[in-house]
C-alpha cells in the first residue's frame, strides 16, 4: 500500500490495521449481481496492496459473503483483520425480516460464522444494529463471554448513539464504532464522535462514497429498472438524485483541478477525518479498488478541506440515507 507508515489503530489501545478497509457487502448482496471471480480477484488485489481489514456480515447473501471471504483468505487468515456484523434476519425471498440479538442467538450466529469463515476466532464482532427488544446488559454480556473464551478478540458497535456507546463500553471495552460517514452523511460529527474520542474508540466509516453518489460514475437514470437497495433509498429518487448529483459535479470540478478523480477526493476527505478513522471502501472490481487506494497519496490542507466541504455542504444533500423504516432502526440517529 502507498506509504506503509499510514497504518492506523482502531482506538487508542486497539489493533493496528491498514488505513483503508475493504467492505464486502456489494460482492454478495444489495447492489445487484456481482462477478464472483472478479470479487475474489479484488480481495486478493486488496491484500497485495496492503489492505488488512475486511468487513463482512453473516447476513450478506445469507452466508455467501463469509464463504467468499473464506475462499479469498485461505492460507492468509493470520495476515488479515476480519470484522463481522450479525443479528439481521433474512427470509427465503432475500428480504430483511427483523433482527435477533438474544444471547443464545448471538452465540449460535457466531458458531455458524466461524464455520463459514474456516477460522476459530473473529477479530471484531459487532451487532448490525442496536437491539431495542433485548437489554444491553444481556447482549453485551454474551459478547463479553465470547471474548473471554477466545472466539472473539474485539467488540464493536454499528450505528450506535452516544448513550449506548458509553453504557456498552462500561461493560466491556468497545474497540470501534461503525457508522456511515461521508461528505453527504455527517451526523456522526456530534456527540457520537465526541464520545468515541473521549473513550479512545476507533471509527470504521462506511458509505464514504455515499453508495456511489460521490463516485463520479453515477448518472441521473442510474436507478431506472434496477432491483436493489438504492432503488428505494430516498437519496436516489427523482429530484433528490438530481440535486445530489449536482453536488457531486461540484466536487468533480475540484477533483479535476487537483488532478484526481471525484471518488479519490471524497475518499481523501474521509481519510483526513482523523487517524482514528478507517474508511471502508466498497470496491467490487480491481479497477475501482486501485482508484480508491490511490487516494492515500492525496494530502489536503485546511483550505482545500474547506473548499471540498463548501462544494458538498451537508445541509444541501436531499433525502435520508435509508427509508423511514431503516432510519427508525438507527440508534445513532435517535
From TrEMBL:
Domain of life, per lineage: Bacteria
Family matches, as InterPro entries: AKR (IPR020471), Aldo-Keto_reductase (IPR050791), NAD(P)_OxRdtase_dom_sf (IPR036812), NADP_OxRdtase_dom (IPR023210)
Keywords assigned by UniProt, alphabetized: Oxidoreductase
GO MF annotation, one: oxidoreductase activity
Gene Ontology cellular component annotations, sorted alphabetically: cytoplasm
NADP-dependent oxidoreductase domain location: 19-311
First and last residue of the signal peptide: none
Protein name (record): Oxidoreductase, putative
Organism per entry: Roseobacter denitrificans (strain ATCC 33942 / OCh 114)
Source organism phylogeny: Bacteria, Pseudomonadati, Pseudomonadota, Alphaproteobacteria, Rhodobacterales
Amino acid at each position: 500500500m502507498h506509504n506503509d507508515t499510514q497504518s492506523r489503530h482502531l482506538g487508542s489501545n486497539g489493533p493496528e490495521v491498514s488505513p483503508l478497509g475493504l467492505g464486502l457487502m456489494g460482492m454478495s448482496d444489495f447492489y445487484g449481481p456481482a462477478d464472483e471471480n472478479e470479487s475474489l480477484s479484488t480481495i486478493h488485489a486488496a491484500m497485495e496492496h496492503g489492505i488488512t481489514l475486511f468487513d463482512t456480515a453473516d447476513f450478506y447473501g445469507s452466508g455467501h459473503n463469509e464463504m467468499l471471504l473464506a475462499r479469498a483468505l485461505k492460507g492468509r487468515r493470520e495476515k488479515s483483520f476480519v470484522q463481522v456484523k450479525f443479528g439481521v434476519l433474512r427470509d427465503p425471498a432475500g428480504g430483511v425480516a427483523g433482527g435477533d440479538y438474544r444471547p443464545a442467538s448471538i452465540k449460535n450466529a457466531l458458531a455458524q460464522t466461524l464455520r463459514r469463515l474456516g477460522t476459530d476466532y473473529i477479530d471484531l464482532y459487532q451487532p448490525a444494529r442496536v437491539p431495542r427488544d433485548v437489554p444491553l446488559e444481556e447482549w453485551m454480556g454474551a459478547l463479553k463471554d465470547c471474548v473471554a473464551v477466545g472466539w472473539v478478540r474485539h467488540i464493536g458497535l454499528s450505528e450506535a448513539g452516544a448513550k449506548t456507546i458509553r453504557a456498552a463500553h462500561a461493560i466491556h471495552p468497545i474497540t470501534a464504532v461503525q457508522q456511515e460517514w461521508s461528505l453527504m452523511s455527517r451526523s456522526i460529527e456530534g456527540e457520537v464522535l465526541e464520545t468515541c474520542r473521549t473513550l479512545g474508540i476507533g471509527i470504521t466509516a462506511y458509505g464514504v462514497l455515499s453508495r456511489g453518489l460521490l463516485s463520479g460514475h453515477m448518472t441521473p437514470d442510474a436507478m431506472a429498472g434496477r432491483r436493489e437497495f438504492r432503488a428505494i433509498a430516498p437519496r436516489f429518487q427523482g429530484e433528490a438524485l438530481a440535486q445530489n448529483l449536482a453536488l457531486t459535479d461540484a466536487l468533480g470540478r475540484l477533483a479535476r483541478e487537483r488532478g484526481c478523480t471525484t471518488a479519490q477526493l471524497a475518499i481523501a476527505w474521509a481519510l483526513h477525518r482523523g487517524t482514528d478513522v478507517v474508511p471502508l471502501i466498497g470496491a467490487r472490481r480491481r479497477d475501482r479498488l486501485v482508484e480508491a487506494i490511490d487516494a492515500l497519496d492525496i494530502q489536503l490542507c485546511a483550505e482545500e478541506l474547506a473548499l471540498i466541504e463548501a462544494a458538498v455542504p451537508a445541509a444541501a444533500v436531499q433525502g435520508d440515507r435509508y427509508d423511514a423504516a431503516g432510519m427508525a432502526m438507527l440508534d445513532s440517529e435517535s
